[in-house]
Design brief:
This protein is an alpha+beta fold. The chain has 2 helices and 4 strands.
Length: 105
């Protein structure tokens, strides 16, 4: 049995300004094969989306973890990207440009 990280993206809701809110979520799955892990991850993601009333983007990415078991400082997810942007610009574009800030009541 191996551990896998599975990333799914959901439409979380819409704020008062009409902007969409998205959630990028990574879960750990233990399975005896990549195919089984992906199947379990799809099922978990579908249940999560349905129980919260979210729409789920149909593509899901799975990642096989190295090592035998989860331990302190264990890498749960790693994905590579390429761009001509600087690290600062890439971070701003991917993580800060669309950052969700909860509305104050």
């Amino acid at each position: 049995m191996s551990w896998y990280g599975a990333r799914s993206v959901y439409h979380f809701g819409v704020n008062s300004e009409g902007l969409n809110i998205f959630e990028e979520r990574v879960v750990c799955i233990k399975a005896d094969s990549f195919k089984r892990a992906h199947s379990r991850a799809r099922k978990e993601a579908k249940e999560y989306a349905e129980s919260n009333g979210f729409d789920m983007y149909p593509e899901q990415v799975c990642y096989k973890q190295g090592g035998d078991k989860l331990i302190k400082d264990y890498e749960v997810w790693s994905e590579l990207f390429q761009s001509n942007m600087s690290l600062e610009s890439f971070y701003q574009e991917r993580y800060l440009k669309y950052l969700y800030v909860p509305e104050q009541a």
